Amino acid sequence: MPERTPLHLDKLDYSTLQQCMHCGMCLPTCPTYDTTGVERNSPRGRISLMRSIADGELELTKTFADEMYYCLGCLACTSACPANVDYAHMFEVARADIEEQKILHSIQRNFWRNFTVKGLFMRPRLLRILGRIIWLYQKTGLQTLLRKVGAMKLLPKNLQDLEPMTPSIQNQFSDQQIASVEKPKAGPQKYRVGFLTGCVQDLAFSHINRDTVDVLLANHCTVITPRNQSCCGSLHSHNGEIDLAKTLARRAIESFDLDSLDAIISNAGGCGSHLRHYGRLLSEDTEYSERAKLWDSKLKDIHEWLMEIELQPPPPLSIAQEITYHPSCHLHHGQKVTTQPEDLLRSIPNVTLVSLPEATWCCGSAGIYNITQPEQADLLQKRKITNVQRTGCQTVATSNPGCHLQLQNGLGEKHQVIHPISLLAQAYRQTPKDN
Ligand code: SF4
Ligand code: SF4
């Protein structure tokens, strides 16, 4: 075989590729294998392909690339794996090879990747300007009008499918709702934490960011929220843009005075799962590697942090609610924050938690999977919605913007989708008169 360009897969510690003992325990947890029953579409099959490429037995082909983009990256296989196979790392490395070797390049794909992953999500100001334009389009009623007259039918088919999923943009973004330093008004200041506002979260769910700060204040935390934060780089890392992910990791580290903080808080499952691994991402960066390790040690998911510092007991909600909870894959399988969100919901008096069938099965959102694999995403969304409907609950709690949008789009206006922290914030805001 002629010599080929060295790949990231070649450089991967070989013990990582060897970890898989082919037991197949991951197979029943894998949504793509569940759909097709084909070994190649399973975690075991994908790992075997990656190993064959690293061993030089297989070429990096379009078939392999399609396979790695058919994978949701949901990491359900990692929770089932008795050998602790680091699938998350292998998956990102394989996608980086696919992008660097330009295996899937096409004019249309390159255009969208340059516009979104390499353009908008690298430039927080530009992203906010676009957010403001969409906000105007929605607030002036133009969106409703164009939908009513059927103008969306003029869009190309893939944009037509995506248009109903456009998130509602908030009137105010996080920087307008949260001061750079906020201190608890009552009680002791026990902790000092940094807060990450995210990018999609900042535009479409800035109210959840406000709720998160309020909950932290109620739990004796002083909250530091740097202005104009960038994307955390999770989108880039999951889509094979490792160098861009590194740039964004350095930017995030630079925005905080790490030594002065007890923790850095993320409230989005998908972001948190990536943010916890800056140490590995920047391990070869002599300037940042030590700070990245310190960052990892301080990075906490909000549910995890609150349970760690002993949550201040919330007062009862004025109206009793039955709620079900959908765990975001990257919170549950990626960060292994499994029990805390439900413990937190159970701690709110007047909240009854109803268990969700197949709770840890992916909802099909998975970053930009809706765009790249619409049929499989649709299948998973329908399955999740059927399960939510089986609970009889009108409210479903979840902790990731992608899952939030996927559930809300599938359930429609009659159901409420809420972040567990927003419910907790509502409880803390009750005055004695409300109860
Ligand atoms: S990440 Fe999800 S879709 Fe991909 S192999 Fe694992 S279980 Fe299957
Ligand atoms: S469960 Fe782990 S060891 Fe077993 S086949 Fe799946 S990835 Fe390999």
Describe the protein's architecture and organization.
With 435 residues, this protein is of the alpha/beta class. It has 3 domains: 8-100, Alpha-helical ferredoxin (Fumarate Reductase Iron-sulfur Protein, Chain B, domain 2); 174-308, Rossmann fold; 321-434, Rossmann fold (3-Layer(aba) Sandwich). Helices cover 50% and strands 8% of the residues. The protein is built from 26 helices and 9 strands. It has helices spanning 8-11, 14-18, 31-36, 43-54, 62-70, 76-80, 87-100, 107-115, 124-139, 142-148, 157-162, 174-177, 200-204, 206-218, 234-238, 242-254, 269-275, 278-281, 289-298, 302-308, 329-334, 340-346, 369-372, 374-391, 401-411, 420-429, and strands at residues 181-182, 191-195, 221-224, 263-266, 299-301, 321-325, 351-354, 395-397, 416-418. The strands form 2 sheets. It has a 5-stranded mixed β-sheet with strand order 1-3-2-4-5. α25 (401-411) links the parallel β8 (395-397) and β9. α14 packs across α26 (420-429), α20 crosses α22 and α24 crosses α25. The longest helix has 18 residues, at 374-391. The chain is globular, with a radius of gyration of 22 Å. The model has no long low-confidence stretch (mean pLDDT 93). One iron/sulfur cluster (SF4) is lined by residues 20-26, 43-44, 47, 77, 80-81, 83, 85. One iron/sulfur cluster is lined by residues 20-26, 43-44, 47, 77, 80-81, 83, 85.
